[in-house]
Amino acid sequence: MKRPYPLVVVRRLVAVLLAAAVLALPARAQLAVSAVDRVSITVGDLDRSIQFFTQTLDCQIVERREIGGEAAERLLGVFGARCETALLSLGSEHIELVEFVAPVGRPIPDDARSDDRSFQHIAIVVSDMDRAYQRLRDHRVRHASTAPQRLPDWNPNAGGVEAFYFKDPDGHALELIYFPPGKGDPRWQASTEALFLGVDHTAIVVADTNRSVEFYRDQLGMTIAGAGENYGPEQERLNAVFGAHLRITTLRAPGGPGVELLEYLAPSTGRDMPADTRVNDIWSWRTVVQANDPAILAALRAGRARWLSAGPRSPDDRADRVIVADPDGHAVEIDLSAPSTNDDAD
């Protein structure tokens, strides 16, 4: 009689087979994400947030709607979900605001910090930092940074870039960013009378850059567009974190804003995303990506991504949109339907 294989051997064999399954997926699945379509922000009062984003930041309303029913519940993973949403445009990018009429989620904690793993922001490009900062002061916007910071020239990637963190009415962190000539996407250098130009990236705090790169690059198919380290007094005042030393890695899809990974090499006091976070909690953001091939879902399952959407009701159900969590709990919505920012949940 043959002796059974030790458990550790079985586990290693399973891991090898899973890895082989991912590698065996069609090449197009490795590049399944075609664009970051929009960033979705959970808000407490939709009308208040619309007023803030349109009057302070010059966003334009594209569409307002209400969603609910079983399809919305299963996508969002929240039983009884009913939401009022607004799709806004800023330049070529889109921002979605979502208020949960039911059930209402939890607010952002008063002691939330920029180095917590629940942190996420969008970087709004401006043509003139002084004028943009004055606009925020005129609207009495809450500061997160002490003031706009010009990053030092010794930093080859960020030298000369100006940035400023501030808060929306719910306490979400947002960033103004100015790119001098030769920095950032060339389109940010185009001559224009507009003050707020668009969204360059969404930034998330991560515990381990390598682990997050495995998710965004190896499973979603995004590519690394840049990497470096930022530190010094300017970075401390920008993030409002004393002793801040960040490893920064930017990933991009063929279209849309980038995803910037912020790993705090110091200090080590940042807190994990609450394990019971749901998409109706006010601190929850969703990065919505368009995908071309349903095989991306198999790659995510093989990589053991955590599903936030409810599972299918039967083996025959096919989901065109699902929400998963990245390794630190940030929500990513995979949209496999026809490319559009106007798809409904039900």
CATH superfamily of the domain at 34-266: 2,3-Dihydroxybiphenyl 1,2-Dioxygenase, domain 1
Portion in strands: 25-35%
Radius of gyration, whole Å: 21 Å
**Element order, helices and strands?**
HHEHEHEEEHEEEEHEHEEEHEEE
Q: Count the beta strands.
A: 16
> What does the overall shape look like?
globular
Overall residue-averaged pLDDT value? 89
CATH architecture of the domain at 34-266: Roll
The termini sit apart by 57 Å
CATH fold field value of the domain at 34-266: 2,3-Dihydroxybiphenyl 1,2-Dioxygenase, domain 1
Can you offer a commentary on this structure?
- This protein is an alpha+beta fold and 346 residues long.
- The chain has a domain at 34-266: 2,3-Dihydroxybiphenyl 1,2-Dioxygenase, domain 1, CATH 3.10.180.
- Helices cover 21% and strands 34% of the residues.
- The chain is built from eight helices and 16 strands.
- The strands form two sheets. It has an eight-stranded mixed beta sheet. An eight-stranded mixed beta sheet has the order 6-7-8-5-9-12-11-10.
- The longest helix is centred in the first third of the chain and has 17 residues, at 7-23.
- It is globular.
- The chain starts with 6 loop residues before the first helix and ends in an 11-residue tail after the last strand.
Concise account of the structure shown:
The chain contains 8 helices and 16 strands. The chain has helices spanning 7-23, 27-30, 46-55, 70-76, 129-138, 209-219, 233-239, 295-302, and strands spanning 33-43, 60-68, 82-90, 93-102, 120-126, 149-150, 162-167, 173-178, 196-206, 223-231, 245-252, 258-266, 285-291, 306-307, 321-325, 331-335.
